[in-house]
Design goal:
Layout: H1 10-17, H2 27-44, H3 46-55, H4 60-66, H5 72-96
């Protein structure tokens, strides 16, 4: 399952993070915007972020592995996007059957 070949769930990203994400943006552009938002959230409201990560089911061990990394916001954005794309993939797969 390659991220670049799967559709990005723009609506869910817009809803959760108030990012102006639309279908003209690439994966990297969405990741950059999400990284900037996450940097702010990490400084101000980590509980909200961890609640969101729990709600979308990002693996706790993956979060623990990156939490002290200097580039935590970017790595967390990657985890979030991967999970949202994975969820959209499975949702679409089962919707068709």
């Amino acid at each position: 399952m390659s991220d670049s070949l799967l559709p990005i769930p723009y609506a869910e990203i817009q809803e959760e993070f108030a990012i102006d994400a639309n279908e003209t943006l690439s994966y990297e552009e969405v990741k950059q915007k999400l990284t900037l938002i996450l940097e702010q959230i990490l400084m101000r409201d980590t509980q909200r972020l961890f609640a969101y990560l729990y709600r979308i089911d990002v693996a706790e061990d993956k979060v623990k592995a990156i939490i002290h990394h200097p580039d935590v916001a970017s790595l967390m954005a990657e985890l979030i996007l991967q999970k949202l794309i994975e969820k959209a993939y499975w949702r679409n797969l089962y919707k068709k059957s």
